[in-house]
Design goal:
The chain is of the alpha/beta class. It contains 14 helices and 15 strands. The protein has helices spanning 3-11, 13-20, 40-52, 62-76, 91-102, 119-125, 146-153, 176-188, 212-215, 248-260, 268-280, 282-302, 329-338, 365-379, and strands at 27-28, 84-88, 108-111, 129-132, 136-138, 141-143, 158-164, 192-196, 223-227, 241-245, 308-310, 317-321, 341-342, 344-345, 356-360. It has a 7-stranded mixed sheet with strand order 2-10-9-8-7-3-4, with helices on both faces. A 4-stranded antiparallel sheet has the order 11-12-15-14. It has a two-stranded parallel ribbon with strand order 1-13. The structure holds pyridoxal-5'-phosphate.
Length: 380
């Protein structure tokens, strides 16, 4: 096991055993974060900040947001000149606050399962209903069911779509044409699009990410997008995220709520890491993406018969297909734990995920080799 995986285990043994049972030798590849040494410049910026020995109030410099947009312009050809940017403690916070503003109790929010686990609880906790527009699994990977989306969007109770691009857990990168179609359907039906783009920087080599804000320009759709360094640089325990929108009023409302609830409080370490990440992290990220692409390749080549991979176009997540083993939901979870693997069982992402499991592949090559070897061994 790598040092980082060991640290991850040591950090959260209670959660791990609650989810996967007690096993001293579980290989933890279930959380969407990189299990590799993080960028040395970021680590140094945190160490240097710690050395200062003063951790009181510190205001957020404007250079922070500038660093983000400098990065976005270079990596995604989006300079942010047409939009407003707000800081938010987390993606979940942004979505929760937006749902309060955009919907009322009893309204519904459209999700595209299998999809990131936190969306549904946020919707349900707000007293809103989930409406499903499931992805279709075709011979060429996952696709959106746009006819079904159109039907769901036409129902006036369905006020918001949460789009996940790149899509966690299936690793799909939505194309400009997909995004334009979504924008047009939602514009016509007055459905607000929350584009969760927190994995935007994780398009694998040869692929590119299209921001919803650019694809949707001119469609008339109302939208907001989430961004930030937390997934890209493994900073979920440190940094803030961003909420981007072209709507001045929405931005003002979001910022007023954030201020009212004191969600804008700064963390001196977040300030240090955030700016350093966007100013210096490119080479480290390129290395990470090469590693992830190689790991996906390795899985595609070496997974034993009976287990397939849905090849990711983006994210450091591999969506593994165990359906040929014909195990039901609890059996598959038990089988994986007995194999010594802590993966996220597919049903966590919605019933469409049954028979699948998600593996984090931002991990040293030997760890992926070990996971493959454990799967082979479990199959006998
Ligand atoms: C698509 C997506 N959105 C949001 C998050 C979590 O963001 P936060 O912890 O800032 O709420 C994750 C974490 O894995 C994610 O995959």
């Amino acid at each position: 096991m790598s040092q980082l995986a060991e640290r991850a285990l040591a950090n959260d043994p209670e959660r791990l055993s609650a989810l996967f049972g007690d096993s001293a030798d579980l290989l933890p590849l279930w959380i969407a974060e990189p299990y590799v040494e993080l960028a040395p410049e970021i680590k140094a910026s945190l160490e240097n900040r710690a050395q200062v020995g003063w951790y009181g109030y510190e205001s957020r410099p404007s250079t922070l947001i500038e660093a983000f947009w400098g990065w976005m312009a270079l990596r995604h050809a989006w300079d942010g000149s047409q939009v407003h940017t707000s800081v938010s403690p987390s993606v979940g916070t942004s979505i929760g606050v937006l749902l309060e503003h955009l919907t009322k109790p009893g309204d519904a929010v459209i999700l595209q399962p299998p999809v990131f686990t936190d969306f549904k609880p946020l919707i349900v906790a707000a007293g809103r209903t989930v409406v499903r527009n499931p992805l279709s699994l075709t011979n060429t990977g996952y696709r959106m069911d746009l006819d079904d989306l159109e039907a769901k969007a036409a129902d006036p109770a369905n006020r918001v779509l949460i789009l996940c691009n790149p899509h966690n857990p299936v690793g799909r990168l939505w194309l400009q044409t997909d995004l334009e179609a979504v924008a047009n359907i939602c514009a016509v039906n007055n459905v607000f699009v929350i584009a969760d783009e927190i994995h935007a920087d994780l398009a694998l080599p040869g692929q590119s990410f299209t921001p919803f804000g650019l694809a949707a320009a001119g469609s008339g759709v109302s939208w907001a997008a989430t961004h930030g360094p937390i997934k890209t640089f493994g900073l979920a325990g440190v940094c803030d995220t961003l909420l981007i929108s072209d709507d001045k009023d929405l931005t003002t409302t979001f910022q007023k709520t954030s201020s009212r609830l004191h969600l804008t409080r700064n963390n001196v370490f977040a300030l240090a890491a955030f700016e350093t990440a966007y100013k210096t992290g490119a080479a480290w990220l390129d290395g990470l993406l090469e590693l992830v692409a190689g790991n996906a390749e390795l899985l595609a080549r070496e997974l034993p018969d009976g287990i397939d991979i849905v090849r990711p176009e983006a994210t450091y997540l591999a969506w593994l297909d165990f359906r040929q083993l014909s195990l039901d939901v609890p059996e598959l979870a038990r089988w994986l734990a007995a194999a010594g693997l802590a993966l996220s069982p597919g049903h966590w992402f919605g019933r469409e995920g049954a028979g699948f499991a998600r593996m984090t592949i931002a991990a040293p090559r030997h760890q992926i080799e070990e996971a493959i070897s454990r799967l082979r061994h479990a199959l006998g």
